[in-house]
């Protein structure tokens, strides 16, 4: 059974930092990513990392502020969020792709991140 277990988010002030983690189990994945959904908005891509090789990509809105990384031994992916802004407030979701899949097949339960101004 595949499980993606996200760490708790939190309430922070603008300019603060926060790190999310997502522990994966149940199978191997080709890539993992983070998405977010703000109230009244559609879910949007934040960042992704290829499990083999570690190449990354980011949404323009977070480039230079957020860093996605992985720990192969722990089968865990992280999202380091720096210089947080109120517009980063959202529910953040971890997601994973099966090898050969063109889409994300598995999703975490979501964790709330709130940035106050």
Task: Provide structural commentary.
- This protein is mainly β and 117 residues long.
- The protein has strands at 3-6, 10-13, 18-25, 31-37, 44-50, 56-58, 66-71, 76-81, 90-97, 106-107, 111-116.
- It starts with a strand and ends with a strand.
Residue share in β-strands: over 45%
Detail the poorly predicted runs. Answer: none
Overall spatial form:
globular
- Given helix and strand content, the structural type is mainly beta
Instruction: Spell out the helices and strands N to C.
Output: EEEEEEEEEEE
Helix content bin? under 10%
Mean pLDDT: 96
Number of strands: 11
User: What profile does the largest beta sheet have?
Assistant: 7 strands, mixed
Distance between the termini: 40 Å
Q: How many H/I helices?
A: 0
Q: How much is the radius of gyration in Å?
A: 13 Å
List keywords for this structure.
0% helix; mainly beta; four-stranded antiparallel beta sheet
Give the secondary structure arrangement, pairings included:
Layout: E1 3-6, E2 10-13, E3 18-25, E4 31-37, E5 44-50, E6 56-58, E7 66-71, E8 76-81, E9 90-97, E10 106-107, E11 111-116
Parallel strand pairs: 2-11
Antiparallel strand pairs: 1-3, 3-8, 4-5, 4-9, 5-6, 7-8, 9-10, 9-11
């Amino acid at each position: 059974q595949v499980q993606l277990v996200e760490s708790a988010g939190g309430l922070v002030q603008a300019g603060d930092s926060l790190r999310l983690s997502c522990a994966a189990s149940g199978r191997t994945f080709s890539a993992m990513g983070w998405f977010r959904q703000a109230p009244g908005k559609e879910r949007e891509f934040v960042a992704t990392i290829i499990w083999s090789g570690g190449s990354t990509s980011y949404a323009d809105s977070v480039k230079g502020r957020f860093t996605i990384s992985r720990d192969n031994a722990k089968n865990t992916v992280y999202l380091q969020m720096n210089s947080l802004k109120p517009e980063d407030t959202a529910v953040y979701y971890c997601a994973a792709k099966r090898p050969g899949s063109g889409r994300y097949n598995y999703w975490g339960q979501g964790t709330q991140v709130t940035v106050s101004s």
